[in-house]
Design a protein that fits this description.
This protein has helices spanning 8-14, 36-52, 83-89, 125-142, 204-208, 214-228, 255-266; strands at 2-5, 25-33, 56-63, 67-70, 93-95, 102-105, 109-115, 149-151, 154-157, 160-170, 173-181, 233-237. With 269 residues, the chain is of the alpha+beta class.
Length: 269
């Protein structure tokens, strides 16, 4: 568990004034690749916890194996893979209660899930969405992509989305959030109308025409999120006890040793 802080001048700008009881601490979870269903379960748990302890907030950063989620404005007609193709690829379709349309999740895409007490932060939904979109604008600019603009479905470069935004709110606690394409394989995006757009999604790496470091992008997302939402102090975690533990690598035994082990297991006691 690490402490994470902005530069001193930014911290001083956003620190609460004396007597201000609205100060909220942000827990950031850098989780690597996470099963989508496990993430949804963790998200529900954090929404419940933040609802009861509104001086806390959480930001989950991870990526998922390939699947397609469909939000409240999405439909099966936006997915141009037939059922057999999806079955062969092992790509499930998951209907979820966030805003937005269809979204193809894939390795190389950063999923951003803020769980925030919006009432405590004095944010209504348009203000929250505006700040979230501008976090993405800031991050794109940090990578050298200066022509990205915030639009209702996320972040666009020309006519192509580079990030999709779709949120949900329960008891004034936000969940779901955004998905930012860093360097995924873009070919499958031609067959999914992400965010309802007929144009396929692009990526930071494609627009920059240079390799992008995903670790640097994660760091920029955390920093820009802290700035835009005036949360100057965070605690960074690399796991959560509610998630399944990563399997330990199995040490391969030489053939003869394997035979001896199996023989000893089969021998009568």
């Amino acid at each position: 568990m690490l402490k994470y802080a902005l530069k001193p001048n930014i911290v001083e700008q956003h620190l609460p004034q004396q007597g201000d009881d609205r100060f909220t601490i942000l827990d950031v979870y850098l989780l690597g690749r996470v099963d989508f269903e496990a993430l949804l379960s963790l998200q529900r748990r954090l929404v419940y916890e933040v609802s009861g302890q509104r001086d806390r907030a959480a930001l989950l950063l991870c990526e998922h194996e390939s699947l397609i989620s469909v939000g409240r404005q999405g439909s099966r007609s936006q997915i141009h893979f037939d059922t057999n193709e999806l079955r062969l690829k092992g790509w499930p379709i998951r209907w979820v209660n966030r805003g937005g349309g269809c979204l193809l999740h894939a390795p190389g895409q950063l999923a951003v899930y803020p769980v925030l007490p919006l009432d405590r932060l004095q944010l209504d939904l348009p203000q929250y969405l505006d700040r979230l979109r501008h976090v993405l604008v800031d991050v794109a600019a940090d990578t050298g992509v200066k022509n990205a603009i915030a639009e209702p479905h996320g972040l666009a470069i020309g006519e192509r989305l580079v990030a999709h935004v779709g949120i949900a709110v329960r008891d004034w606690v936000s969940y779901f959030g955004a998905a930012l394409n860093i360097n995924p394989d873009l070919d499958p995006f031609r067959r999914v109308n992400c965010g309802g757009s007929a144009e396929p999604m692009t990526s930071l790496e494609r627009e920059r025409r240079l390799a992008v470091n995903p670790t640097m992008i994660q760091q920029r997302v955390v920093e820009r999120f802290m700035e835009r939402f005036a949360l100057p102090r965070v605690t960074v975690h690399h796991e959560h006890p509610a998630l399944p533990a990563a399997p330990r690598p199995v040490r391969k035994l030489p053939t003869a040793q394997t035979f001896l082990v199996l023989r000893s297991l089969l021998d009568p006691i």
